[in-house]
Structures are given as C-alpha cells and as structure tokens.
Amino acid sequence: MAGLSRRHFNTLVGASALSTLPLPAIATNHKAELPNPIGPRVVIVGGGWSGLSIAKYLGEADRNIDVVLIERRKFFHSLPLSNLWIGGLLPQSKLTYRFEDAAKLGGYTYFNASMTDLDRNKRRVETDQGWIDYDYLVLAPGVDYDYGSFGVKDPAAISALKNKYPAGFVSVEEQLSLIKQLDRFEKGIFVLTAPPGIYRCAASPYERACLIAATFKKRKLKAKVVLIDSREEPAVNGEGFLAAFEDLYGDVIEYRNSTGIEGVDPKSKTIKTDFDDIKFDGGAIYPRTRASTLIERFGLNDPESPQKEAKIDPFNYNVIGDERVYVTGDCRPMPFSKSASVANSEGKHVAKVIAARLQGREAKWVTPESVCYSMVNTRPQEAILSRSFYRFDSKTKQWAFDPKSKPYNIRSETFGREAHTWGDAHFRELFG
Hints:
Helix content is 31%, strand content 28%. It has helices at residues 6-19, 49-61, 82-86, 99-106, 155-164, 172-184, 204-219, 238-249, 293-297, 340-358, 413-431, and strands at residues 41-45, 66-71, 75-77, 96-98, 109-112, 115-119, 124-127, 130-133, 136-139, 143-146, 187-194, 222-229, 253-256, 261-265, 270-273, 277-279, 282-284, 288-291, 318-319, 322-327, 370-378, 381-388, 390-393, 398-401, 406-412. Helix 2 (49-61) runs parallel beside helix 4 (99-106) and helix 2 (49-61) runs parallel beside helix 10 (340-358).
C-alpha cells in the first residue's frame, strides 16, 4: 500500500463508507446555503469523471453559467488507473484529490451533500443540506452492482460478496479490501469475473488478471488466477491480452472463456457455471453493472434496458421529454465504453449542448473517444492500447465503431509510460 498513510486510509474509508450508504429519506424545508446564482444555474449530481468534466467545461463554455456540483464525498478517488495501485505500480496518493481543488480550478461551487429527492415540475433538487433550484440538471451518479444477474439474491450472500470478494469498481473501500485480501493471500485459486454488458471499463478485468498474476509470480506463490468470461475472447484487445496470458502467465492465469455464471456461494467459496463448479480461495467477483438506483427511483430509466440505464436522447443526453434534465456517465444507455476517457469527452460535449441551449442554439454531436491503456507486464512495465471512436448508422439505427478505431496489441514499454502520462495529464486537467 505504497503512498497511503494510516490517517489517509481512515479518511478514505470513512468517505467511501458514506458514499455507499442508501440515500437517506431526509426531507428539508429550507434552501441550501449557497450564494445567489450569477446566471442560469446548472446543478450536477455526482463527482465522478463525467460530472467533474461537465462542471469544468461548462465554465469554459460560458462564464455566466452558475455551476453547482453536488457530491457527498470530500475526496475523489479515481477508479480508472486503480489497477496500477492494486498491482503495486502506482501510489494511492496519485489517485486521490480534493473536490474543493477541482471547484477552485474550474470556477464552480462544490456542495458537499447527498441528493434525496427531485421535483422536475419545480426544477428543484432536494439534498440533506437543503433544496437547490436549477435551470438545468445533470445526473451523473455512477453505477450499482446487479448480483441477481448471476443468481445471487439473498441479502446475506450479497453482503458477503461485497465485503469479502468485492469487485472493486465502485468505491475506494472495495479496493482497500481487495488490496488487504491480496496482501494476505498465500496459495490457491484467486477468481476474477468479467461481467456481461457494458461495464467499467472493458479492459479492466483482463488487465487486473495480469497484474495480480504478476504479483503472485513476484512473491513466488503457489497460486493461480482464474478469469471467468462469458465472451469467446476479451472484450477489447483480445489478441494482446491472450498473448500476455500465454507468454507471460501461462502457468498462472487460467482464462475460462465462453463460460456463464449461474450462481455464487460465498460461504462454500464456489462459483457455479454452465459447465462446472469452481472452488476459490479468494477473488474479486464482478457482477453485471446497472445504472445507479437514483435513475430508477426518479422514473428516468428505460424499461427496455437490462442495465436499467436512462432513457435519453443519445446525441444530446437529455431525458426524453425534458430538455432541462441530462443523464451522463455510467447511467447513459449508448454502447460506448464506460471508461474515464469516454466520460471526459462526453462531458465536454454535454457542456457544449447545455451552453448552446442557454443561447438558443444546438450543438453538433461529436463522437466520444475511448483511450484505454492496459498494463499487462510489470517488469518491465508494458502496456497495450485501444483507441475507439463511434458512429450511428441512420439506416440500421445501430451504433458501431468508427473505422478510425484501432487496437494496438503489441505490448510496449512506450505504452506503459504513456499510461502514467495519460493519468497525470487528466488529473491536472480536472484538479490542477
């Protein structure tokens, strides 16, 4: 746990624990203590990569816009790049920043509160710290896990999986638990799962398999990583990951492709698949993700979406029938990668849409860009790269990759260095 002090550890666990609690049903009858708006007020709920990017670029698009970011945490912890922390290649301090610093840099207001209700008729957001009226609202509350998607519905079993074998893709608390588990791991099967659907982010389970396998090799453990995937090959950079599995970790990684999960028993440490049962000694079990329950709670989800994502205009991101409310990040339904780079580029577009509409104009849709470096080796640090763009076929009404999308499957130390550079540049962009 390089770079993580005991004081910082306790602060982060406290912040994360609060961020994962159910929304309190607190009714407030007072206005939030905020300065009067300097112009049209845009309220953003959620300070992940999407919310932070929109907040920053709204200010750049029009300095007259009054931006308020509602976020119940005090510290931002980046889940993108966190596999490098888990693999011992990046100190935790490189991933953690203060929301206050982002707000100061972007010239907007950070409001430390939890959203509790929404009244779209009044254009009002309720929080546990008072209500806020908006001209435009952006909801970017992130994801939740859907353990029922692989047959786990018992609350006790769900709690055990979250606490003992966390996926590590929602909170820093999960990741701290995962690191602690890896520090204690001595031998046996460490199981990972790659969920179906669109999830955070497509390359992450495969990169994590490589980094954990590298850790086991370094410590000379009698241990194996078993990666269970319903796909025939990795969701992205298939050639590059399969080559890494074989060339670097042939005796450590077992890739179970085309394998569906039908149940998980945390008590007996067994995963039931459509082929056999897999006993495990440790793991990070990643179920299908779904949009934050906030979206469903406020009636904004698409009933046809298996991941309960929002029903929005796919080019402008506003809720169908309401151009004052937008849904972005993990809760949007388009089949783009749910990565930091996509959230960042989408954020720039949504900021332009809102700024243009405030001026009576419309902004032209531009494809988000997915840039994903995946570290597959640690000594030396070598990565592969996927760069993707998207297009909409007006005839078939389907999304597809733009022809300029390209995988770079040859592992490279240059890409390894660029992975760190990419993170440094984007953290400076948002936090200074």
